[in-house]
From TrEMBL:
One of its GO terms (molecular function) is calcium ion binding. It comes from Gossypium stocksii. Residues 14-49, 50-85 form the EF-hand domain. Keywords: Calcium. This is EF-hand domain-containing protein.
Length: 96
């Protein structure tokens, strides 16, 4: 049995899933970590007008140990950052 916080809507959960699978698809060398180029590719797929800027901000927010890659443990923070930017229209951005 899984309990969700009341504030988490099904839509938001669906968006988290979409962003997660987007990032996993951008891990082109399959090392389980996201480099700056890989994150930038994800922002391009999200139709970001400033993928370089978004990538920089995303690493500031999510790369807690400062090693220049987003590991599995840091992925949640990265997803949070993307949701901060695009919550409510993730699906729209990915389908167009
Ligand atoms: Ca990688
Ligand atoms: Ca890191």
């Amino acid at each position: 049995m899984v309990f969700f916080k009341k504030s988490v809507s099904p839509t938001l959960l669906a968006e988290r899933e979409q962003i997660l699978s987007l990032f996993k698809g951008c891990d082109v060398n399959n090392d389980g970590k996201l480099s700056k180029d890989e994150v930038k590719a994800a922002f391009r797929k999200l139709k970001s007008r400033f993928p370089g800027f978004r990538t920089k901000r995303a690493f500031k927010a999510a790369d807690k140990n400062g090693d220049g890659v987003i590991s599995e443990a840091e992925l949640d923070e990265l997803v949070d950052y993307v949701l901060d930017c695009y919550e409510g229209n993730v699906a729209l951005r990915l389908t167009k």
